[in-house]
Design a protein that fits this description.
By secondary structure, this protein is an alpha+beta fold. The radius of gyration is 16 Å and the shape is globular.
């Protein structure tokens, strides 16, 4: 698949692709190192189950972006994220996410409700 140009400049030539819930996360090398370190710190501090570290490592692969901006998503990761047809590529602050289009569209109404409830309760995003 082709990664949108607006994301490629921030990602670099090599990315790390791994499972992120119902989607796939695409990390730049820097973001991957930061995420990995944060995960290890949480394991050391007994904040999360050590098996999560293993699951994160086992379901993450290093991928080169070719000169046309394409990446190849391994079959195992396509299956984990249920990528069977059209996909949505969305920015997620520290990384990029690849979603099955139907899954993403179903999630959007829930996300809209969550944001609206936050603002109704006097909350802000800052």
């Amino acid at each position: 698949m082709v990664l949108p140009a607006r994301f490629r400049a921030d990602l670099g030539a090599r990315v790390y692709l791994g499972q992120q819930g119902s989607s796939l996360a695409v990390y730049s090398e820097e973001a991957f190192v930061e995420t990995s370190q944060r995960l290890l710190d949480q394991v050391r501090n007994q904040e999360i189950d050590p098996q999560l570290r293993l699951a994160f490592a086992a379901n993450t692969v290093e991928i080169e972006i070719d000169s046309a901006g394409r990446i190849t998503i391994p079959q195992r990761l396509r299956e984990l994220a249920n990528l069977t047809g059209d996909v949505i590529v969305a920015g997620a602050l520290s990384h990029v996410e690849i979603w099955d289009q139907a899954t993403y569209e179903a999630l959007q109404s829930t996300l809209t409700d969550v944001v609206q409830e936050q603002f109704k309760a006097g909350g802000t995003i800052n």
